[in-house]
Amino acid sequence: MKKILIVLSCILFLSGIAPDALAQEAATDGVQINQEQLDNLISTLESDEKREEFIGNLKILSEASAETTEDKATSLSELFGLDKPIKILQSYYQDTLDQYNISSSMLNNIIATTLIVLVALMLMYINYRISIKIKNRLISFKDRFDLSHNRLHTYTRVLRFCGHLIILLVAALMIGINWGLDPQSSAILALVNFKTLFSIILVMLIGIVVWEFIDGSIEYMQVHAEIDKQARMNTLAPIIRNIALVVFLTMFSLILLSELGVNVLPLLAGAGILGIAIGFGAQAMVKDFISGFFIIFEDLIQVGDVANLAGHTGVIERLTIRKAQLRDFEGNVYTVPYGEITTITNLTKDFSYYVFNMGVAYREDPDKVIAAMHEVDEVMRNDPEYKDFILEPLEVVGVDQFADSAVVIKARVKTLPIKQWFVGRGYNRLLKYKFDEKNIEIPFPHQTIYFGEDHKGKAPALHVKQVENKKKS
């Protein structure tokens, strides 16, 4: 208080500011005085005449300040006409507190707590609406690129839960501080370590966005691949996704641990040593990985192909980076590691052939048989059930061999992949009807018995004896 009086006296005495003006600037902070002003003040206080003048100025200043404050209060009350209602409310408020023995500070805490809870509930509702809007935007985005929505519900629920959790924590913190909790306590400082929390949330958000971009790109290429490359993409997509997932999770875990303050250099060194040990101890597995990479990369087999792998023939159902699974006609599933495959026979690569080895009797005219086969082929290529699967007309190679009881005519028909057996069975059925129609014999196997000849060219007689079986009564 003394310092303020000294400052005011210096201003009055040295600069001659009027008391009314000083009353308006009395609230101004940061007034500085120098040595010259202090010397003037000392001389003023030592002189009786100047001291009386100074005291008079202070009295004028005090009266002006009181009048200004009263005028402001009076002007506000009179301006709004609230002077009497305010007094009545203040009296009623104080009487109510006294009646229920409630302190004004406790009531203020209750009101503040209620407001915090209401604001928290409103923010939670806003967070819920925002999560719904984000979900709808993500669904429309994925529909635009024909992507799946399997993870959208999980993401929106996690986002909503995190928002609710943050709002509740902040509300609980504010309520605790309102009721006297020390905001500088170690528990609260650890709770509100926003830097670490923000780093973790940022890393997780970036990780989710990066992974969704990678996975969405793979799925987009798989969905929009050309028809002839669809099977290959169905084969490669799961393998690429698994490799990308392993790499991504490893990098994400290291970054997250680094943000939490964990030294990741020992982990990297340990992982390198472990990788070398696994490489030496699992040479067969490494061989499977390398062989599988080149088999898949060179597009030798795909999911859905019929192939022969390591002596097993069947439809390929699954390809991983280490092994192939195929199922034969009887439903048996074979798992073949790539390291055991030396030769791959793909029966349905790009197109297929069904080969006919048609045997007819020696007495039949081969040209007549070939003409009948072409007639059946013409019928097949005009049949709605088969015409979409036949790529080229029947190719007859000709008389291929003379078997024991038949002349074999070889032919083949070109079909779509994996449709050769369906077309071949239909062709055999119609060819049987055509041979029956033209009386072309498909011979039964028969043998000719030779008894030999003597030097004169005569064969020994064949004695045939009929034996009757008599049943005993």
Low-pLDDT runs of 5+ residues are 1-31
Q: Overall mean pLDDT score?
A: 77
* Cα-based radius of gyration, to the nearest Å: 50 Å
* Major sheet description: 5 strands, antiparallel
Beta-strand content? 5-15%
Offer a concise description of the structure.
With 473 residues, the protein is of the alpha+beta class. Among the domains are: 2-87, no CATH class; 105-192; 295-346, SH3 type barrels (Roll), CATH 2.30.30; 352-437, Alpha-Beta Plaits. It is 60% helix and 11% strand.
Describe this structure as you would to a colleague.
The chain has 473 residues and is an alpha+beta fold. Among the domains are: 2-87, no CATH class; 105-192; 295-346, SH3 type barrels (Roll); 352-437, 2-Layer Sandwich (Alpha-Beta Plaits), CATH 3.30.70.100. It has 14 helices and 8 strands. It has helices spanning 2-15, 19-25, 35-46, 48-80, 83-99, 104-144, 152-178, 186-191, 194-223, 230-259, 265-281, 283-297, 366-382, 420-437; strands at residues 306-309, 312-319, 323-327, 333-337, 344-346, 352-360, 395-402, 407-415. A 5-stranded antiparallel β-sheet has the order 4-3-2-1-5. The radius of gyration is 50 Å and the shape is elongated.
Spell out the key features of this protein:
473 residues, alpha+beta, disordered N terminus, five-stranded antiparallel β-sheet, SH3 type barrels
Which helices and strands appear, and what pairs or packs with what?
Elements: H1 2-15, H2 19-25, H3 35-46, H4 48-80, H5 83-99, H6 104-144, H7 152-178, H8 186-191, H9 194-223, H10 230-259, H11 265-281, H12 283-297, E1 306-309, E2 312-319, E3 323-327, E4 333-337, E5 344-346, E6 352-360, H13 366-382, E7 395-402, E8 407-415, H14 420-437
Antiparallel strand pairs: 1-2, 1-5, 2-3, 3-4, 6-8, 7-8
Helix pairs in contact: 1-3, 2-4, 6-7, 9-10, 13-14
